[in-house]
Design brief:
heterodimer, A: Rossmann fold, Ubiquitin-like (UB roll), elongated, B: about 200 residues, five-stranded mixed β-sheet, about 30% helix
Chain lengths: ~475, ~200
């Protein structure tokens, strides 16, 4: 196949970037191929940093050759002779296996000078990332590869035209590259059999959170979320109710139950206010507080912001403060509106994709779970009974059988009781760790969580003794 | 270099290829606010104040004018409801750090930014990077740099270099829109320059 034919096949397969953006790989390659200059680069983005996502790691650890082969094919199509693999140093086995694969490929003549007698030269260099999430962003990754601090560039020129060291550079995700050999071997028509109108092929998802079967799953694009979560994932453990699924990593969004029949695809998820991202899927059950989820992801992103532009650095600093206050019962009237203003500023004015998408966790949870935000702010109530500052643990005197398990397990020594004495939680001493709630035997279920209402006064001493019927006789 | 004709705020503007929107606008006497821009330095795109609205091929979008290159027939609006709203928010975020900075106060007046919208932050620095970039790009000394990232990012003089270079330069001081830079220098001086081996030789 000629380079043009390879490019044509990848374009025909409509292979879209698996790392997040969903940009058509073929168009990206073509842009680089047509860009002026003799030196061009191809790069593997293996800076997988989303919490709970490890698709790229498993591909690199398990089948690094698929990535190398894809990269070599891409280099051939683009006219590049030098490739880079930007891999997190937190993935030691992936790093080791990639190095081994490159060595093996060189030995067999699959990499190096005059590959398999074709006259095509191509070498691959492994670069280990130093642990910055933002380096998964294309321009930040290239800046880091150049040996500088990994910060995004404010350029309005695509990096496939002006990229690494100012040269045309094709950057694709691990999974995207790994799809390329399949497309070339089996043809674009084979590849496009699976998928939706705009998203072809399969996608690996990392299914984690409150789900029975956790792990990596590869499904055809277009599979409904419900099938992934309930048929493959086995649903929610412990008889709990499904609440939402977070897709697309920290800057993705939460999708509620009513949208579970959504087929997974780049455009479908974006329309629902989330995104495909690299394929993280965090399942949440009814015990998850959606405001706290937004706070958690904002916390992650604030920590990972490079700090270059104001809307991201300062905007997120403030968003995180406000969200933290809301989850602590210190929310004020107007907080939600201020968060919305800050979200607009970040979305419209931030420098890179990390900043622009940083308000997504907030916006999507607000869109589908606004009532939870309002309950926190107005009633100081956490509907999921999860935010510590807004809940209290209470022992129902009618249900407590004075088994004293909670009393013994309480790390704060906040529970008083004794033989045949109904246990009482001292609210002043309680640290809300939830141990009593967990250890109370299911046949009693005497410990309850309360939010938004006062804790009932402790039962009077004289009524506290349990009189056992068997002993009366 | 071919000439490019574009429209900024309804005014026909001639620009040279390779110029940025900001340069073209300022060349035509149209003002766009900036904090991190300096004509001697590479555009940084950090403060985002110079955002303008672009109209091309029927849709509008926001771009930062200090980086965006001029294009033929572009229609640019340097003020719009959205642009003003974003500038106001950016200013309010920065005023939490440097409420007394004159540049910020002037802009706050123009855009109706409330300096008390957010709680005051401990650091004065607004991270425009002027000092860091001036020292690196113009003076080529790298005596001052950024440390850490995100909300923990701060400017810091590198004592080994600062004790050698800064004493006779200090050209970065007037660039700073806040008081942070001088304070950081004074601190570095107090901590590092006092050691006799690093004291600048007299008459230097």
């Amino acid at each position: 196949m000629s380079a043009e034919q390879v490019l044509g096949e990848v374009k025909k397969a409509n292979l879209r970037g698996r790392g997040g953006g969903g940009f058509p790989a073929g168009s990206k390659w073509e842009g680089s191929r047509n860009a002026p200059g003799a030196i061009k680069y191809v790069i593997v983005n293996a800076d997988e940093g989303d919490p709970g996502a490890y698709m790229d790691r498993s591909v690199l650890e398990g089948n690094p050759h698929s990535v190398l082969e894809g990269l070599t094919i891409g280099a051939y199509a683009v006219g590049s002779h030098e490739g880079y693999i930007y891999v997190r140093q937190e993935y030691p086995l992936a790093v080791e296996n990639v190095h081994m694969a490159i060595k093996k490929a060189e030995e067999y003549g699959f990499l190096g000078k005059n590959i398999l007698g074709s006259g095509f030269d191509f070498m691959v260099i492994v670069h280990q990332g130093a642990g910055a999430f933002v380096c998964g962003e294309s321009t930040a990754l290239m800046t880091a590869l150049e040996g500088r601090a990994g910060e995004p560039r404010p350029k309005y020129v695509r990096s496939n035209v002006v990229g690494l060291w100012g040269r045309p550079s094709v950057l694709n995700n691990v999974e995207t590259w790994a799809n390329v050999p399949l497309i070339i071997n089996k043809g674009a028509d084979w590849f496009t059999q699976l998928g939706t109108e705009s998203s072809k092929g399969t996608k690996i998802f990392s299914l984690v959170g409150k789900i029975t079967n956790t792990g990596l799953v590869e499904v055809p694009m277009g599979t409904p979320l419900r099938d992934i979560i309930f048929k493959i994932g086995g649903g929610i453990p412990g008889g709990k109710k499904f609440k939402a699924v977070q897709t697309g990593g920290p800057s993705g969004g939460c999708i509620p139950e009513e949208l579970l029949d959504l087929p997974v695809g780049f455009d479908e998820l974006t329309k629902a206010g989330s995104m495909m991202g690299s394929g993280g899927m965090i399942v949440m059950d009814e015990d998850t507080c959606m405001v706290d989820v937004a706070r958690y992801f904002l916390d992650f992103l604030t920590d990972e912001s490079c700090g270059k532009c104001v809307p991201c650095r300062e905007g997120m600093r403030q968003m995180l403060k406000i969200l933290t206050n809301i989850t602590r019962g210190k929310g004020k009237e107007g907080d939600i509106e201020l968060l919305e203003e800050l979200a607009e500023t970040a979305r419209e004015a931030a420098l890179c994709a990390l900043g622009k998408s940083s308000p997504n966790p907030f916006l999507s949870t607000l869109k589908y779970f606004r009532d939870e935000y309002e309950a926190h702010v107005k009633e100081k109530r956490c509907p999921a009974l999860s935010c510590k500052e807004l809940i209290a643990f209470h022992i129902d005197p009618g249900k407590c059988q004075a088994c004293m398990i909670c009393l013994k397990k309480c790390p704060a020594e906040a529970i008083t009781g004794g033989k045949n004495l109904i246990s009482i939680i001292d609210q002043e001493k309680c640290t809300k760790c939830g141990t009593c709630f967990e250890v109370c035997p299911p046949r009693f279920r005497a410990v309850t969580k309360i939010s938004g209402e006062p804790v009932p006064p402790p039962i009077p001493e004289e009524a506290r003794t349990i009189v056992r019927e068997s002993k009366q006789k | 270099m071919s000439e490019i004709l574009l429209q900024i705020d309804g005014k026909e503007v001639r620009a040279k290829e390779g110029m940025t929107l900001l340069e073209a606008a300022r060349g035509a006497g149209i003002s766009i606010p900036t904090l991190c821009y300096h004509e001697k330095l590479e555009p940084y795109g950090g403060c985002r104040l110079c955002m303008v609205e672009l109209e091309s091929r029927g849709s509008t979008r926001l771009v930062v004018s200090c980086v965006y290159p001029v294009e033929k027939n572009l229609i640019v609006r340097t003020r719009s409801e959205k642009v003003d709203r974003i500038r106001k928010m950016v200013l309010q975020l920065l005023l939490a750090h440097a409420p007394d900075a004159f540049d910020l106060q002037d802009l706050a007046l123009e855009y109706g930014a409330d300096k008390d919208r957010f709680e005051k932050e401990a650091s004065f620095c607004i991270h425009c990077g002027l000092c860091v970039r001036y020292c690196a790009e113009v003076k080529k000394k790298n005596a001052v740099g950024f440390v850490d990232r995100g909300i923990r990012k701060e400017i810091s003089f590198i004592p080994e270099i600062a004790s050698r270079e800064c004493w006779n330069c200090k050209e970065c001081f007037p660039l700073c829109p806040t008081e942070a830079l001088q304070a950081a220098f004074v601190l570095t001086k107090a901590l590092a320059f006092s050691s006799p081996s690093l004291e600048p030789a007299s008459g230097e």
